[in-house]
User: What shape does this take?
Amino acid sequence: MKISGSGKLSGGKIEDELHISGLVRIVGDFECNAFSSSGSTRVGGNLNVHGDARNSGFFRLTGFLNIEGDAIFSGSTSVGGEIFVKKDLINSGSLRAGNKIEVHQDINFSGSSRVQGNIISRKDIVISGSSTVQGSITGNDISIGRERLSSKSIYKHPNKVYGNIIARQDVNLIGTFVEGDVRGYDVNIGRGTEVLGIVYYINDIQVHEKAILAHKAVKVKIENLEKNKEKSKNYQ
Assistant: This one.
């Protein structure tokens, strides 16, 4: 189904793909095989997509977003509830989530993002744009921030995490404020990063001279890293 004009759809289910390039309002919950919006789309409910979902325009959803394929956002995307993606989630635009984001594959944010809950991935997380996360970030390898051409920035911390950062493998942080703990195998605390909690590492840690740790980093055995998770402030 293709909509290139202005219209309104009632909630329901279609055994087809939905492609929107116009101005469309969907009233209620909606379900489709694939979804794309390059126009302006508002959904007053939940959206279930059994394939890939793309947005390069203006997209606003009041409920939760469930995607069984890849999610690729390059426009302005706002979801009031939880975002669940079975494959990859890629955002190069503006993304706002009113609840947690859970992804089975990789997460890559090169645009701006604001998440009111946790970010969880079964694989790697790369955040190279600007971000504010009110919860914790959990993934395999976690990389947040990037080296700027100039050491001077409008923002002291382009990335802010008000929970914990929990990596099953390595952590690399640049220009990131972390209110909670940081945990990983190899940990790099780069330029402009500030951690108020405790940094736990298993193998190695590198701390830039222009980074701030509120507490001395703690080296632990891999089995103790799991125990320390229970003792830390719970943002999950």
Q: What stands out?
A: The chain is about 5% helix and 55% strand.
